Amino acid sequence: MPIVLDGKSVAAQIKADLGARVAALKEQGIQPGLGTLLVGNDPGSVKYVAGKHADCAEVGITSIRRDLPAGATQSQIAQAIDELNADPACTGFIVQLPLPADVDELSMIARIDPGKDVDGMHPYNLGELVLHTSGDIATPLPCTPRGVLTLLDHYGIDLDGKEVCVLGRGITIGRTIGLLLSRRSVNATVTLCHTGTKDVHEHMRRADVIIAAMGSAGFVKPDDVKPGAVLVDVGVSRVWDEQAGRYRIKGDVDKACYDKAGAYTPNPGGVGPMTRAMLLANVVEIAERNAAR
């Protein structure tokens, strides 16, 4: 039987540990705070931000919320970022993506104070990740890639020398997880596939691990999976269910692949909870580093 990589269960354990660490920080007079900047009312973003604040309440982190209308200008968004950078109650914050089409997302990410970048996506923090092929990294790590590796490690899945096929080149995971996978402490060999990749199905068939992050519902089929491979499904697509009369969330991995896998992440309930847990971990770690100075 394949192993179900239960992100909800592992995230709950992580949050219990973080709650104890937040309590210890409070005893030192330090109150960690997570800020979010949400522009507009995209349903997925609204739900995701609400989940982050619910997580904060669960572990004792203060929530600092900034919401702007969908028509907010780039200068208004920049001003909100500057305010969160300057707010001493805000240990770290995220700018929820996507931003309006006429806003330069990368310049907004670059405007975040690197020391408060709990998404781990600021160019400085990504640069630190690029530079450190081994040893500890004292800057925030990207949440979704970190969550994937933490989940695999929890279940004792050793990636040393394994062939990992990553599907998708987005900044949330596709372009960053290879940096973590190829560090000496993990030691995997990574193939990054995208829309320009020829014979993508052949790359998948050779892989010991497939990390699917394309946003293409059911893209990975049973014929693409080597027996015993580990399947990590990061994709999110809203697909209309005619029978139910509503949209459902679908992952990139066809559920028919599960019987062929050695282990797999359910979707939902796999990588998503881990991403949120890693966001909280980054907040707590920043607060701990600040306390040690």
TrEMBL record:
Positions of the Tetrahydrofolate dehydrogenase/cyclohydrolase catalytic domain: 5-119
Query: In the UniProt record, does the keyword Hydrolase occur?
Result: yes
Its GO biological process annotations read: L-histidine biosynthetic process; methionine biosynthetic process; purine nucleotide biosynthetic process; tetrahydrofolate interconversion
Organism of provenance: Bifidobacterium apri
Which proteins does it associate with, and in what oligomeric form? Homodimer.
Cellular-component GO terms for this entry: cytosol
What the protein does? Catalyzes the oxidation of 5,10-methylenetetrahydrofolate to 5,10-methenyltetrahydrofolate and then the hydrolysis of 5,10-methenyltetrahydrofolate to 10-formyltetrahydrofolate.
Protein name as annotated: Bifunctional protein FolD
Catalytic function, reaction form: (6R)-5,10-methylene-5,6,7,8-tetrahydrofolate + NADP(+) = (6R)-5,10-methenyltetrahydrofolate + NADPH; (6R)-5,10-methenyltetrahydrofolate + H2O = (6R)-10-formyltetrahydrofolate + H(+)
Domain of life (superkingdom): Bacteria
- Which pathway does it take part in? One-carbon metabolism; tetrahydrofolate interconversion
